[in-house]
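hi! just following up on the protien thing from before. the input was this:
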Amino acid sequence: MKQAIWNGEVIAESNETIVIENNHYFPPSSIKKEFYKESNLHSTCAWKGEASYYTLEVNGKENKDAAWYYPEVTDLARNIKGYVAFWKGVEVK
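and the predicted 3d structure came back as:
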């Protein structure tokens, strides 16, 4: 079981993460939505497509744009469509 943890809370948990480029992508159903707020940030990956971001809000603290996902993907990345990955101090263990 993989867990994504930030600010003392488990914010995602799954046995079915997909690892790409050393990032664990968590299935959309495994994230605890109460900790996620849509962000306006977008970035583009040449082979995955356009990423959208979430800001995390946990126990009164905010971690801006700390999670990302691909709502639409290229054929090469179809297995991670909608899956969520983390950075900015989010621990995956």
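The two ends are 8 Å apart (CA to CA).
Residues 2-92 form a domain with the Metal Binding Protein, Guanine Nucleotide Exchange Factor; Chain A fold (CATH 2.170.150.40).
cheers
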